[in-house]
User: What shape does this take?
Amino acid sequence: MARKRTTPSATPAFTADRVVIGDCVAEMARLPAGCADLVFADPPYNLQLGSDLTRPDQSRVDGVDDDWDKFADFAEYDAFTRAWLTEARRCLKDDGALWVIGSYHNIFRVGAILQELGFWILNDIVWRKSNPMPNFKGTRFTNAHETLIWAAKSPKARYTFHYHALKVLNDDLQMRSDWTIPICTGAERLKDAAGRKLHPTQKPEALLSRVLLATSNPGDLVLDPFFGTGATGAAAKKLNRRYLGIERDKTYAAAAKKRLKDIEPMAEADLQVTLGKRDEPRVPFGHVLEAGFIRPGDILVSPDGRHRARVRADGSLVIDDFSGSIHRAGAHVMNAPACNGWTFWHTEAKREPIDLFRREVRRQMATLTA
Ligand SMILES: C[S@@+](CC[C@H](N)C(=O)[O-])C[C@H]1O[C@@H](n2cnc3c(N)ncnc32)[C@H](O)[C@@H]1O
Assistant: This one.
């Protein structure tokens, strides 16, 4: 089951919050193993465009025909994919996770290779574009989505997932795997001096924010090996995550740096996410005793006062010739297979459920780690 960390884990020392210009495979090879909490990768699509695409009025469509997207054949693309995924995997902490975004041109190949390398797919997310580019020739369906693969490093990894926070983000409905988000337009879209799109595939910050909010924590290091205009860095900096971007193209890297310079992180208090019951730290009954809220020799009673149990120094309850944990003792008197001892047992004097003390211990723990 998913892990919900609330404090950042230790990262081997190196400088974060920067953009590195270079080839991602070579640059990742220089990073310490296990430095990243999350990898977000938007690799070349390998679109393999044959000729210029035109609209019905013969104007040229500004598609992805850049050199960075050109590979001789599938074999070359696969070898490149294997190389960067291998390095990304080495950079990831064991409990870290990987996101890769792509289209039908590449995502199936990337998905198969990452499984071969040992990644464990958790979900595929369909990013449904509310304003996609039409299919100008009318020969196929409008290509209105991209796919994101979310994968843990292994089936046993205790990856981060803020289930409850995402549910709140979605008006208290469980967040689904299809996300409708507009493509990047307007003021967010970076332009060159002539007013043209600076980058053909700049991703919307809203998409990255959702990914980071759901699967990382403040202070985590997010590594993006195909940084482009730095959408990942922008979302990371706003959400108070650390980032490391690698980009081969100097113009894109410079634009990303400029964009990131002006971003202010949100206040810490605004970044606390909603936690569910399962996210809360486990507090054994023994801690309540050690904290002095209940003492050995105290009497606990059932909600209706009919059953009484005496507390022993090891946290067990004694009822006649039975002894056991608060849960087993509750189940015993109820003659039930199981019982939540925290809500069943109450103090004798004030008839308060002992769960109140567990909450108090949790509050003290949170103050200590803050
Ligand atoms: C699909 S785009 C990423 C766009 C980015 N997510 C954004 O929102 O701006 C892929 C980027 O990877 C870069 N790239 C391609 N091959 C690379 C490599 N081997 N190492 C580093 N960057 C590379 C390209 O220059 C391009 O900017």
